[in-house]
Design a protein that fits this description.
about 300 residues; mainly alpha; Farnesyl Diphosphate Synthase; two-stranded antiparallel sheet; 2 strands; EC 2.5.1.1; EC 2.5.1.10; (2E,6E)-farnesyl diphosphate synthase activity; isoprene biosynthesis
């Protein structure tokens, strides 16, 4: 990682990040039900609360703030994205997919609650995500609800996260070239991160050109996140990561490190993040410092 002081090191950003993470946590505690029947609520809360960087919600909130968006709608969108992310982790960790036992520093949901309850918890979290985007109290317009639902559905579905996971499972033991590897991860990881940005933008008003540049920024952050994730899988330990280290190599999955080598993968992550910063500068937004800092945070994270 770059040794120079970045925006992600500044006191202002750290304070902003902590305040928004705390607000997201309180909202999730309020909206994820503890009283769902037959212990389902316990599994849902276990999957979501008290863990994770909340990067996706932070991207929603930072983008909404940058475009002068609707604060209440942005918080609902931020939590909806996090619920989709959480459900995907619950399902991805199950024996039928990645068969992992550690997530966010604790046993995975299927290890703690059993496979059937984990499957149902993921299903319920997915449904709750869209419920949050269509509140019945008139706090969001029908048009905004519809737009946010569509953006999230596209990112989570066959041409987004679910499709990318299907490609990932089909690629075990396959030597993918760089365009194919990028295409897989732009769906599996990148689509939801990009949607976090575009959903934040959808809570406010911005020109079509600015929206397109924000979408490009989100795509760059999503790709960089995955490259750094591949790097950390071979350089960090399980305690630091909060999940099983070395899992990709053990499963013979194609990664940016296996394709490029460690040094070249890091250089590639740096180039993609530089592109994210350049895209933001071209957007003309007056309040993009937090988005710049989030990009730096993605590139410099240790877990």
């Amino acid at each position: 990682m770059n040794a120079v002081l970045s925006l992600s090191d500044t006191n202002d950003f750290v304070a902003w990040r902590q305040a928004r993470q705390d607000a997201v946590e309180r909202a999730l505690e309020r909206w994820v039900p503890a009283n769902a029947p037959a212990g389902l609520g316990d599994a849902m809360q276990y999957a979501v609360l008290d863990g994770g960087k909340r990067l996706r919600p932070l991207l929603v909130l930072a983008t909404s703030e940058a475009v002068g968006g609707h604060a209440a709608a942005a918080m609902r969108a931020a939590c909806a994205v996090e619920l989709i992310h959480a459900y995907s982790l619950v399902h991805d960790d199950m024996p039928c997919m990645d068969n992992d036992v550690l997530r966010r520093g604790k046993p995975t949901v299927h290890v703690r609650f059993g496979q059937a309850q984990a499957l149902l918890a993921g299903d319920a979290l997915q449904a709750l995500a869209f419920e949050l985007l269509v509140p019945g109290d008139g706090s969001m317009s029908d048009a905004m609800s519809a737009r946010l639902c569509r953006l999230l559905a596209l990112a989570a579905g066959a041409d987004g996260m679910a499709g990318g996971q299907a490609v990932d499972l089909a690629s075990v033991g396959v030597a993918l070239d760089q365009p194919s590897l990028e295409a897989m991860h732009r769906r599996k990881t990148g689509a939801l991160l990009q949607a976090s940005v575009t959903m934040g933008a959808a809570t406010g008003s911005a020109s079509p050109q600015t929206l397109a540049l924000l979408a490009e920024y989100g795509a760059c952050v999503g790709l960089a996140f995955q490259v750094v994730d591949d790097i950390l899988d071979v350089t960090a330990d399980s305690a630091t990561l909060g999940k099983t280290a070395g899992k990709d190599a053990a499963a013979d999955k194609p990664t940016f490190v296996s394709l490029m080598g460690l040094a070249q993968a890091q250089a590639y992550a740096d180039r993609v993040l530089a592109q994210a910063h350049d895209t933001l500068r071209r957007s003309g937004l007056d309040h993009a410092d937090t988005l710049h800092a989030l990009a730096d945070w993605v590139g410099r994270r240790a877990s």
